[in-house]
Fold each of these.
Amino acid sequence: RSGEMAKLTQLIDNEVFWAYATYTTIVLLKMMLMSPITAYFRITRKAFANPEDTASLGKGESAKKFLRTDPDVERVRRGHLNDLENIVPFLGIGLLYALCGPELSTALLHFRIFTGARILHTFAYLIPLPQPSRGLSWAVGYAVTISMAYQVLKMALYL
Amino acid sequence: RSGEMAKLTQLIDNEVFWAYATYTTIVLLKMMLMSPITAYFRITRKAFANPEDTASLGKGESAKKFLRTDPDVERVRRGHLNDLENIVPFLGIGLLYALCGPELSTALLHFRIFTGARILHTFAYLIPLPQPSRGLSWAVGYAVTISMAYQVLKMALYL
Amino acid sequence: RSGEMAKLTQLIDNEVFWAYATYTTIVLLKMMLMSPITAYFRITRKAFANPEDTASLGKGESAKKFLRTDPDVERVRRGHLNDLENIVPFLGIGLLYALCGPELSTALLHFRIFTGARILHTFAYLIPLPQPSRGLSWAVGYAVTISMAYQVLKMALYL
């Protein structure tokens, strides 16, 4: 029983879990930043998706011309979607990895590289930096997630 | 050891966690509702994205005209994507917040306001209500998530 | 106190949780596969979304013609978005369901059917198979998630 308790303690009440909590919160906040950035470009470029959003810009036909796509708005939206596609796997696989009881230093390395790669990816997408900046920063985050998934499957595999 | 156990008990086996479970399930079910609503508009507006989906509506050229976008379908899809963009951060940050051991009443306030705001957001998007209904309901859910993220970082910060 | 501990043990240190970990990791890896598949079609079809991605294909106007949408690329992207829309609810509701202490055999049935349905859905979308293959595989995964949500709400309901 005390063995099981030690196991539980190891699983949750440990530094790896709180490291996961810190980096996951940071990377989710970064993803959330894409929403106000989209709004900023929609307003400055006057490019909206919904008729009700253009009501304050004029009536009837004069407002209709603001229902359009804009390259800058679409760029932020692609960055946001890419965040969702990559941060959702990190959220799930990272939690399971943290509960597998990895070494703190190894776990921190994974979380820090992933977070850094996703921040770089956003700069590479929005500035934009020439390729392969965006491709590489995407690939680094992807590889970190695969590495954590491998650890989880090695420990948890239960088919 | 009994101190650690109390800590574990505080972390998981408590009402805040089950409050999180309840509201997260509700808000995820709400998000899932967007799929049948999209299907409903695709079928009634006869606006499909895939050739194989129009096979029952006719052959060759006569089916091709149903491969088109429709404003009502696109509206539901934008609402669905906005749900993903906002409910994914709530899912992750909310879980970490619940494990930080907040006061039950404070936690319930966060979860209830977020869930209410996202339900209002869906009505504001689909009816649609005049702005700033949709903008405000989005902002309220966003602010609740930021507030929980602040609590998590204050407690967990481990860089 | 030992009752609480047994409860905690039941909650986390059990086979259901590791079954969840295994299938969630598999289904998230499957979703991640959509990114390289998108890249493969973008490169072979020469259809890109960002000007900086076409720089290696030529200069000025000759590169601009590769900034276009392609039906095969859009098909993979729709499959990827459908994964996000369905795997995010599974991630959240599945975790809460696993912590509700269901029977191992019942839980495995849920996780296996969901994972199988999402793999079938990807094949049905990408080959593509005639309908209702894709519709049915979507519906099976959806129903499994609803069934788990019902179990969570029955056990956790805390409004």
Amino acid sequence: MKINQFAHAPAAFETKLEELSKLRFIKADAQQEDLNLLWKNLLLKCFPQAKCLAQKHEKLASLAATKTESVPEFIEKKTVNLTVFYAVAMQLLQFEPDTEFDIDNPLKSMDELGVFHADKLEDSTDLISAFYDLLATHGKNGQTLLDHLGNLGFFLDFYDLPVSEKPVFFNGKAQPVFDTTKLIFEVVYVESDLDTDHDGKADLLKAEIIRPKDTEEGLKVPALYTASPYNQGTNDATVEAMTHNVNVKLTRKTPDSLTYDEIKYTAKPKTEIKKQTVNGTVKSANETFPREFSYTLNDYMLARGFAAVYAAGIGTMDSDGFRTCGSKEETESTTAIIEWLAGNRKAFIDKTSGIEIKAWWCNKHVAMTGKSYLGTLATAAATTGVEGLSTIISEAAISNWYDYYRDGGLVVAPDGFPGEDADVLAEDCFSRRKQSGDFLHVKKDWENHLAKITRGQDRTTGSYNTFWDARNYLKDVQNIKCDVVMVHGLNDWNVKPRNVYNLYNALQKLPVVSKLVLHQGQHIYVNNFQSLDFTDMMNLWLSHKLYGLENGAEKLLPNVLVQDNVKESTWHAKDSWIDEDADEVVLKATPCGKLKPLSAEKCSADGHDGNCHAKELQFKDSLDQKDFEAYVSDIAKWKHDLASENTPLDSNRIVWKSTAFDKDIVLEGAPKVSLRVKSSRDYGMLSFMLIDYGTDKRLGEVPTTLARKAIDCGFHWRTDDLMEFKLAKATPFKMITKGHLNLQNRTNLWHADDLSADEYVEIDVVLQPMLHRIKAGHQLGLIVYSTDMGMTVRGNEDIRYTLDGTKTRLTINVKNLN
Amino acid sequence: MKINQFAHAPAAFETKLEELSKLRFIKADAQQEDLNLLWKNLLLKCFPQAKCLAQKHEKLASLAATKTESVPEFIEKKTVNLTVFYAVAMQLLQFEPDTEFDIDNPLKSMDELGVFHADKLEDSTDLISAFYDLLATHGKNGQTLLDHLGNLGFFLDFYDLPVSEKPVFFNGKAQPVFDTTKLIFEVVYVESDLDTDHDGKADLLKAEIIRPKDTEEGLKVPALYTASPYNQGTNDATVEAMTHNVNVKLTRKTPDSLTYDEIKYTAKPKTEIKKQTVNGTVKSANETFPREFSYTLNDYMLARGFAAVYAAGIGTMDSDGFRTCGSKEETESTTAIIEWLAGNRKAFIDKTSGIEIKAWWCNKHVAMTGKSYLGTLATAAATTGVEGLSTIISEAAISNWYDYYRDGGLVVAPDGFPGEDADVLAEDCFSRRKQSGDFLHVKKDWENHLAKITRGQDRTTGSYNTFWDARNYLKDVQNIKCDVVMVHGLNDWNVKPRNVYNLYNALQKLPVVSKLVLHQGQHIYVNNFQSLDFTDMMNLWLSHKLYGLENGAEKLLPNVLVQDNVKESTWHAKDSWIDEDADEVVLKATPCGKLKPLSAEKCSADGHDGNCHAKELQFKDSLDQKDFEAYVSDIAKWKHDLASENTPLDSNRIVWKSTAFDKDIVLEGAPKVSLRVKSSRDYGMLSFMLIDYGTDKRLGEVPTTLARKAIDCGFHWRTDDLMEFKLAKATPFKMITKGHLNLQNRTNLWHADDLSADEYVEIDVVLQPMLHRIKAGHQLGLIVYSTDMGMTVRGNEDIRYTLDGTKTRLTINVKNLN
């Protein structure tokens, strides 16, 4: 267990005094108080669940000051000092003496755990200062002490503060002074400028809003807006039937001379769309909604003075229009909600009455949140520069749909979803289908529309075309005006890391602030981790961006924060993805299976005579039908066997390994593989993996649930599970990154190169980016193969590939650690 | 997908009219209304999320009446009939046309899915009747339509009903007319007659109460009480260190002549304990609490007029006393809360003031709920006959702690927890340790107390002794006065099925009503399953038992309800665990590895000459150290290999198999194995498994999450995930049941028989009970082995066992299915 806090804001003593007294922890004369009395009174404040002083005293006696004395016993005879203060503080943070910290020497334990502490406690000033910092310190349950007190009811007395005194901030972060039992749930219908279902009427878009009751008293609050195409339901049974068969052969592309300009997407001019006549305006909506499909970060902020807004967009249940899977129309359907929140677009209380409703309760500052498609739409919205969007927290987001469903001129599925494609996802999210009485009128149009998407995505060639160019948000990055937080899993093979890497790199060239969090998970949220104060970081960020609080968020949060892949619960702050002092290293992959520095000209060091026998390296793509089928039905086994030896895949790939490293190194950024290859056919594809070889305990693939429902988002409000990546059983290796290339896309992704059977061609392929520490004693491996059972088509064809054994190179950025 | 409803109560038409009008679905003259108008008005009631009529009409148009017409379009031209009524009904139940039902023939789909429907709809009476039943019908999301409407806000208008009109029942079940945003959360301290920490003062027990606001207006509500020793936290780090080493040899027991009377537990006479002086009485508690460790069944009922009470008992955080792991004191600490709820015991607002607080809001009817230790304490409480306890819903409960931590004179751990024992669990739940300032005063006493438990449990012999006799609730079953619901997983190898089997059998002899639900899960709750209306069943049961509603619950709920292990989502109602028409069948296990009917005297049918060569069957217990360690670290692999061939375990067990059955059979009750065996040492143990052999898809070991947070416990209230067992990948076999015996406990569990090396003894061993269907084409297998890697000690000793090849018999109850 280790605690990493980045949103613990240093504060001047005057600020501490002021904020503590605002929260009624201390009175004006606190500095004059007797040290023990001050301490006792502060501790008594830590039992808000007890309503009378006698009972608070009972609770106080449950805290140990030393191995032999409870706090009341200690206070009777001795005076609080640094050690005793933190011995008690650790208990308040829910750490347990003996097993989790040493009560005789809490500071040592705190240092080991990474828990903040002061170094001096001699007078009331020190005590007040230390107590302030303690309130902002993370405990064992993934929250600050103040959050914990809030969960016990501390802020109940603040619910009734006049709105002029709300929200309440402490240590730069908004506090739960909003009564979540009185939240207002309402639905509005935002009128877009779209007509994606071509019925001649502007598509109306349903938005679900949750806002604090205080808005009714005049408080203007910002909105956390999550655009989730899934949140009105999905058509799982329908899409199961339309998922594409991936057990098909790779198709040779007819060579062409296409240029980018020929496939470039250009928006069609807009046609006039009929809008509703306004028949009046009201302040209250006419519709409520049951439990929404929420994000717990939004839930947390709801208790702290932020509204939450959920909208699913065109073609979802209760909205008009059709899904388009990532096109400009979907972006526009996303920004329409922001425009309404910012006062620049109309919404109605229903779909027919023409009664308008404004977002009169909103302070016109909006942040977008959410993961995957949700984060993707946040990114998409940001690239429009829409007014009112102050920031996005874009998690595991697609930045270019080609990088989601395609790679290197190939159809490459997100891992775990073979056969999925843009059309499948469009259908899956087309929850308007569930309104059967409405759907029956648009069924035909929808089928035609969907067929167009199927044609546009072009599974035959896998090339980058106009369809994909229309779905490439990177083209519009320069329009981004808001500051951006990105979160991505370095093991996310659903939305592959290139998506965030390209966005991150593009943002570095713009005059906006960007922050990047890279974790060791797959396709997950990280706001419920024990080791990281992600929620606090976002609270700090959102309090600054949406309420304009000057809390130093931009400086406090690291530019790049990366979770260590070797040690549990360890996060590193960095300036950039690739460190300035990283070296670009070129390794040659020798015919005898070694990865060596370019300068090591001969193989003799490894017992060879310097003239390796095999100047050509061959591998095949086909498998016995039985092995093939076994791998199709067990992709995990295929992944394992590919990097192992003595398996049915031995002749289906070439493996190179470095010698064991004598110290830890970190591989950064996107590696490049260059080689000369020939295919036995006039078409072909190569896949690549970098592997960390070395039997070792590694972080689990999925985080462990430390405690179910252990995180309260507020007092008697929603909960989250407390999670953490733990070291799992030892494994012999781990895949670091991968890449794919169609041999007919050597030049670029839109134009098909020629290829002849049995003729060498040279290729350069950039793999997915990485940030991976290889431990001393481990080896780096490179694997070249063809069919990727989990991602590419699987033709099980008799194709052989031959590499020029002397020409394979791997270029990587390496940071040597001391 | 299949829906199984047992709590759908048949109702007279007059009742239907009355209840529908009470819920404001219809007016007095409904029967006179035009059929279409009546239908439309009923449908408009199904959109409580829309607050005005115009908007309800918009929603109505989202329903399809036929393949080509929405409901409004249909109504304009045609009149509702049976088909159209159910085509729309199925949409209200959230089934989707095309993929989930045939809109042209909904009745056929409903029959296939098991969804209730009427067979005639010709006039308003039929329509009203059908609509009533529809409201009580389960949909795709595991809830009734009326629950679904409640989740959309239907009952908001009923929150303000005068308490004289609350609770509201419909179809025999309580409805969510209680405002969960106004629940009262309070803590009281119940004064017990115990002094388990020997401080001379009565142990005070913390209870957390959640009750509807309506109680403040005079409503008396029953209480659902969950006694969970875990709910104040557990000492996981502490117990990790004290978990017992199971890689130890089996110990020979010194033969003795102990009788039961010599080990029988007798309670010590009670000594006087100092009670608090009452210094006054108040109506409101002084303490609240954050998010409790809740059971979603309680959450569901909270919205329906039942209070929830959680208490952890002696030795848990904020309570006094010590944990005893299942002793009489723990039972008494459990019933103390009930006595307070029933008005027969004192509670205080804190631990020192002497200010009393009564459960004035309680109607003195209490039900206990919860799974595992929670269900165990419910069973324990029931065996006291305590006044006020009207029923228990005891899930996956221990009925005898010997059957939890021991078996057949052996230390046998709950599966997945090797090395756990009563002392470990006592320490784990001793959350009083977390009150460090209090704990430091009782540390020594606690350590002495714990050492006594360790001695008492006696891991050396594994015999039944006074310690275990004190923890055998079955001895007191005759005291049970309340009706009992039992729920248990047929694959629960944590709390093994014998626990529920023995309780079930004992209850059949008592004048109480008992109901048994046997599911195919392991150690899980089943209140969130799509296929079963368990929550409705419990609502029906609790409305009857705690509010006295005459709803036919006792007749409607089957005596035994068992989930099919072959088909998905299929539940069978039965009269008893073992069907009356089941046959007791004796199979002989032949020297050549066959399981045959006793009458088949010779093996010749299988190609043998009738005189099998091997009259003795030998197997060893030891393994190569490497194999041993591999199995220790991968119990799943051991389980797999034991029943497979060509594994390191080939010589470590004897396997017999029946011929393939030509039709399905069901094995019922507890099988018995009889055999003659000799050990190569003067001690030894045997383990047994019955196996269902036959490569087939079987239900997954754990249920699949169909939809996260899809079940609302009420409007904007807590949620649960929707779960179901789905058929998983084909497996070659499945374990049905198992058993264990120490060869020195041939006579009984408390007395140690003598055993000489290499001398035959005869044994009878009753395995854990089962209720398992073997499909036609499958074979029944019996395996005899010694060390159970997951449960027994693992000495990896050089012991060989020899069976008399002609004397092994298996006795089972078999029901032949037609």
